[in-house]
Design a protein that fits this description.
The protein is α+β, with helices and mostly antiparallel strands. 26% of the residues lie in helices and 23% in strands. It has 3 domains: 181 residues, Jelly Rolls (Sandwich), CATH 2.60.120; 119 residues, Jelly Rolls; 348 residues, Glycosyltransferase.
């Protein structure tokens, strides 16, 4: 029914959208001329009617809604939901809600807070002038209300900051409460001076129903841990949270409330709002002093001020000249995708394993928003490589494969931009990482193995095949790929955790043939073949040829990179340096000669997890593949500086981006790519059980 509505834009931003992509390296050159909206908050209202017959069927009343970039929607003042998940204009999501419980006979009002960010980043596909809203309220026998030129809007003028933070991830929310349109969500609000929305006939969104649920919002009251003086408070949520805050307080006009959000405290016990992850979380809210006539005196009415966008934090430091402010005035609004954990550790597990499990589980929960974010602070983007670890962990923890499925479709959609697949989707950043693209066939195979969803496997198989064909263009006669210059060859991140990998990884990568990218290429070919075999029900022709091709690539890999003297794999042709990365990947994809397994095991035992937190997944799984499960467990529960225990030692309540706060120059303290123990405990070590 959403197709019955017109796409509505603000009158001042109703021009033709432009269709372009913003490569990271060329974003400025792609900005078209004209007035591009940025940080634009639009309030939209519409009154509709429910007669007696409609109310008898109220339970079947549906709201379909979408907005670019984002919406929050209320019916008769009752919060319904928010979204949509980020999408490309050519595959843009809309949400569906059952709204019967919020309806009443007679007049009803739908109120929508639409936000258009207008930045080129990893969060949304924005900065394209596609600003606005589309919605429809309907029942099975007909349309009740749909967006058209009768809907009214007003700009929300209270968001006054022009400052951004992170990688231009979000605008900071300095708020002037004197500009808030109080009561605008309710039926009795007077919107007679609001403008009519513009029906945007140029709109070109291609809409698809979002299968994933909207994020859940919950409230928590942080503990007051310290007062530094009058009007100076420090609150502690007790653990990392993702969300915002709401303050309800009465005060004098012009009273200021400064909010400092932080993941940790500085050496003086204050909130470290200039965060190590490159976010500066300092905002200022100004009270309106609004009141009402109560005879001879004015009684202050509370300002209710709340965040729109979300942040990642644990602490909130408040500095205010409002004399009425106390710890009772602040509420934290936490958000994440619905998370109902169905799998837990066995009761006989060691306490350290339980601590690591809980650490990983909370990180995955907070990192699952409308997409799997690589972190909920600096980037807020969905990365293809991270999907492997975060998505698998999420499916095992919750038994829910819907978000993983949506992510697979998101990255499939990115092949319309680049047949070799984007590293981040869906967003305006054109970031490409060869290692990540080559994981797509493996991810698709994993999804099927866990869910048994053969229809999705069949539908997405062509995209996996397209990725392999993209890299086949770089294939030499022996079956190895070389000079893969068009995409970043990452190997691992951060750079200082590449175990001295012996290949020049400057971008674009130079001439030569190196082992990590070829291990991933072999893996892509291997799992594409497995997918083809599943789809053919074992009757696919050419199976013998495919096996010969795989054996040829494996033999070429061994010939190019295997050092028979050391019985280890080297990083590149002509090198004798055996990084932990190539040797772990050789085990993961079962490319190693049997004679090498003892030497590779000893290499890993000696080096430990001398790699990034993300690469640890492949190290641990590689060990498990050859039966070295005891060593894998020792590495997971070990206490060295490259360990989950080290994160706990440094005060982590969610997994870090690196093994320690100082091991990367801009470490995020909430990074679900570090959740590999969930997968190992479940798949290989037999330490988990499913709750009844």
């Amino acid at each position: 029914m959403i197709d019955n509505g017109k796409w509505l834009s603000a009158e001042e931003y109703s021009g033709r959208p432009f269709d372009y992509m913003c490569p990271e390296r060329e974003a400025a050159a792609h900005q078209p001329p004209g007035d591009e909206p940025k940080n634009y908050h639009m309030l939209v209202r519409h009154v509709f009617y429910m007669d007696e017959g409609m109310m008898e069927r109220a339970g079947e009343t549906v709201l379909d809604i979408t907005a670019d970039d984002y919406y929050k929607v209320w019916i008769n003042g009752v919060f319904i939901g928010q979204g949509p998940a980020p999408g490309y204009p050519f595959r843009y999501y809309y949400s569906r809600y059952q709204i019967g419980s919020a309806l009443c006979e007679g007049k009803n009002v739908i109120a929508v807070h639409v936000y258009y960010q207008g930045l080129v980043n990893r969060v949304w596909y924005s900065a394209d002038k596609r600003q606005g809203l589309k919605a429809a309220v309907w029942q099975k026998d007909g349309l009740i209300a749909a967006t058209n030129g009768e809907w009214k809007y007003k700009r929300a003028e209270e968001f006054i900051s022009g400052r951004t933070t992170g990688y231009d991830t979000c605008f900071l929310e300095d708020i002037d409460a004197g500009r808030i349109s109080y009561g605008w969500k309710g039926l009795d609000y007077d919107d007679s001076n609001w403008k009519r929305c513009m029906e945007n006939s140029y709109d070109d969104h291609e809409l698809v129903l979002q299968e994933t649920a909207p994020v859940e919002i919950s409230e928590r009251f942080p503990a007051l841990i310290r007062t530094f003086g009058e009007g100076h408070f420090l609150f502690d949520c007790g653990e990392e949270v993702v969300g915002g805050v709401r303050i309800a307080v009465s005060g004098e006009k012009g009273d200021k409330i400064s909010l400092h959000y932080a993941e940790e405290l500085d050496e003086n016990g204050h909130a470290r709002y200039e965060m190590r992850c490159n976010c500066n979380y300092r905002e200022e809210w100004t009270l309106s002093g609004r009141g009402k006539d109560a005879g001879k005196e004015t009684v202050n009415v509370q300002d209710i001020i709340e965040s729109y966008d979300y942040k990642a934090f644990r602490y909130i430091e408040i500095i205010t000249d409002c004399r009425n402010f106390s710890e009772k005035n602040l509420v934290v609004t936490e958000r994440h995708y619905p998370f109902h954990m169905v799998r837990t550790l066995r009761d006989d597990c060691e306490p350290v394993a339980k601590e690591i499990w809980d650490l990983c589980a909370r990180t995955v929960m907070l990192g699952t928003q409308e997409v799997y974010v690589d972190c909920p602070s600096r980037e807020k983007g969905q990365y293809l490589g991270d999907l492997l670890v975060t998505g698998l962990s999420h499916m095992y923890l919750t038994g829910d494969g819907t978000m993983f499925k949506k992510a697979l479709y998101d990255f499939a959609a990115s092949t319309r931009i680049d047949k070799g697949m984007m590293a981040v989707s869906a967003s305006g950043i054109m970031q490409e990482i060869a290692d990540y693209s080559l994981l797509y066939p493996l991810q698709l195979y994993y999804y099927y193995q866990i869910t048994g969803d053969k229809d999705t496997l069949r539908e997405l198989y062509p995209y996996a095949r397209e990725v392999v064909l993209y890299f086949k263009e770089y294939e030499r006669e022996d079956g190895l790929v070389a000079d893969v210059y068009a995409k970043w060859n990452m190997v691992d991140w951060p750079e200082n955790l590449r175990d001295n990998y012996d290949f020049d990884l400057t971008r674009p990568v130079g001439p030569g043939c190196h082992s990590v990218i070829n291990a991933y290429y072999y893996g892509a070919c291997l799992y594409l073949s497995k997918v083809e075999e599943i789809l053919s029900d074992g009757a696919l022709s050419g199976e013998a040829d495919r096996k010969r091709e795989l054996e040829k690539r494996k033999a070429a890999f061994i010939a190019a990179f295997y050092d028979s003297g050391k019985r280890l794999f080297a990083d590149r042709e002509g090198s004798r340096h055996p990084s932990i990365h190539v040797n772990a990947l050789a085990l993961y994809f079962s490319m190693q000669p049997e004679e090498s397994e003892e030497a590779i095991t000893e290499l890993i035992r000696k080096k430990g997890l001398n790699c990034g937190v993300y690469m640890a997944f492949f190290v641990l799984k590689g060990l498990a593949n050859i039966g070295e499960k005891e060593l894998a467990y020792e590495l997971i529960t070990g206490s060295g500086i490259h360990s989950w225990v080290n994160m706990l030692r440094e005060g982590a309540t969610t997994c870090f981006e690196a093994w320690g706060k100082e091991q990367k120059w801009n470490t995020s303290l909430c990074h679900p790519w570090a959740s590999a123990p969930v997968i190992l405990f479940t798949e290989d070590l037999g330490l988990t059980v499913v709750r009844k």
